[in-house]
Design brief:
seven-stranded parallel β-sheet, two-stranded parallel ribbon, binds UDP-4-deoxy-4-formamido-beta-L-arabinopyranose, 336 residues, globular, Rossmann fold
């Protein structure tokens, strides 16, 4: 079966995608510089699937290393590119780090793919490219708004770099715009490893429930939403991972209709922060301490996906419920 490169393959979404690729019979090679992951994830993946992925510890910012890698692994059939920095707040403080780490690396990978005649590319994009969309649910036709952060801009620029390259080369690419990835693998062997104080909601919820954090702050209770708290589309990371294997198969089978395609990957359902808290308490039978505080700078009111394009074209849809996703996050937290 084809050999697939997964950059950032030891990270949260990357590791779950490696598991699903191996379940589909692909040979996987991972590049990860361990800047936001740990090496033991490789053994965890192996213990889940019984197959050890190939692994190279290299930094994609080092163009020389990228060239060497592709010379060594020139039989790669496709690339799934997760490797990037993704902390929205940090990107505001350190824009150059984000432009360097998220854009230079993308360019080096695309250049070496072309040099080695590798034509299939899946890009980890984000609903953040839409900013606050004008109407819900959000379709792929919704325009890019000015991104709230350099992180969001790197996703918008990334898509433009790829689509421009597809126009003038043999590259075929799919950008998957993730909504809010949550949860963990059912074995609780891999999951979200937030380093430091969690920025995202679900790790903060599980750490509060575990007594690591005293109280969850709900950022804003006066949004124009049913209960006043912000609405997002929380998708289980395994559903998200499966969207990548389906998208890669589409490219390998040359079923793509244009050389650059975009799909929203979400559940299609909006949940408020209070909905999440209630669902978590119900799913885990644990009480959550929280208090409603001021809005967080840069947050949008609501975002949830219109997933009909992915359903019609990729024959993919999310199956795992919010409660089951939260229960899996709790199982994972208890192993930490
Ligand atoms: C979700 C909701 C917060 C923490 C970001 C990126 C996006 C993607 C996912 C990378 C919001 C509220 C949060 C807390 C809270 N990342 N919240 N208390 O901001 O929707 O999206 O992460 O691809 O690109 O933009 O996710 O989990 O930070 O917040 O009330 O302690 O939970 O205000 O409404 P967000 P999030």
């Amino acid at each position: 079966m084809s050999k697939i490169l997964v950059t950032g393959g030891l990270g949260f979404i990357g590791s779950h995608t490696v598991v699903e690729l191996q379940n589909e019979g692909y040979e996987v090679v991972i590049i990860d510089n361990l800047s936001n992951s740990t090496l033991d994830v490789l053994d965890k993946i192996t213990s889940i699937t019984g197959k050890k992925p190939l692994y190279e510890n290299l930094d994609l910012k080092n163009q020389e290393s990228v060239q060497q890698f592709f010379k060594k692994h020139h039989t790669i059939a496709g690339v799934i590119h997760f490797a990037a920095s993704k902390a929205v707040g940090e990107s505001v403080e350190k824009p150059l780090k984000y432009y360097h780490n998220n854009i230079s690396t993308l360019i080096y990978v695309l250049e070496e793919m072309r040099a080695n005649n590798i034509k299939n590319f899946i890009f980890s994009s984000s609903c953040t490219v839409y900013g606050q969309a004008d109407s819900m649910p959000i379709t792929e036709e919704a325009p890019f708004k000015t991104a709230e952060s350099p992180y969001g801009k790197t996703k918008q620029m990334g898509e433009d770099i790829i689509s421009d390259t597809c126009k003038v080369s043999d590259l075929n690419a799919i950008a998957l715009r993730y909504f809010n990835p949550i949860g963990a693998h059912e074995t609780a062997k891999i999951g979200e490893l937030p380093i430091g104080v969690p920025q995202n909601l679900i790790p903060f919820v599980t750490q509060t429930a575990a007594g690591i954090r005293a109280e969850l702050s709900v950022f804003g209770g006066n949004y124009p939403t049913p209960d006043g708290t912000a609405v997002r589309d929380y998708i289980h990371v395994v559903d998200l991972a499966k969207a990548h294997t389906v998208a890669m198969k589409r490219l390998l089978n040359k079923d793509n209709k244009t050389s650059f395609e975009v799909f929203n990957i979400g559940t299609g359902k909006g949940s408020s922060v209070l909905d999440v808290i209630k669902a978590f308490e119900k799913a885990t039978q644990t009480k959550l301490n929280y208090k409603i505080v001021d809005r967080r700078e840069g947050d949008i009111t609501e975002a949830y996906a219109d997933t009909s394009l992915a359903q019609n074209e990729l024959k993919w849809k999310a199956n795992i419920s919010l409660e089951d996703a939260l229960a899996s996050a709790w199982q994972w937290q208890k192993t930490l």
